[in-house]
Amino acid sequence: MKSRKIIGRILILVFIVGVLVMLGRIFMMDDNGSLTKIIPTDSARKAYASLGKEAFSTHKFSAPIAPDGYFTAHSLVYNKGYGELQLTARYNESVYKYLGVEDGSDFYWELRDVEGNTVSVGRVADEEQKYFYRHFRLIFSDVKVEEGDSLFLFMCCDTVEYPKAETVGFAVHRPGQDWKKYKLDSEEQKTLS
Hints:
The chain is α+β, with helices and mostly antiparallel strands.
């Protein structure tokens, strides 16, 4: 009788630990709190000096993750006056295994139009490792996004054929998406001044 109680308690404990691990993993996966601030580039400073808080726009992405599931993006800020777009992209460390490349291989990021033409290649302005994810604050220059344009983000690797011709990019902007004024916090205002 006593052994049944012990086994029952062990099973309950294993169940509780399993649920906590799953919940922790879900919270880690949905973490968009890294590298969310505007990087104070020359273009961003000039835009802020001439237009103040009205210089920057943003909108939510139409999907939270790339169609192939390899990466996600958040924290979009667009400076139309100077054609600069900043966003944060992140991928899980397991992407190396899925693509068959060596751990730590360098990826680069491209914005492409609907025809697949490269609009801009991203520059990594900041980087952070958090949990199982690598986060990158990316800056794209010379980007013109009109209301009817489609713009897609691609994670690229020269070591293997990725993206392939059939790879669908992460939708950064789609026709009909409305830009909203980006709300600068006091820290961002200070760094842009």
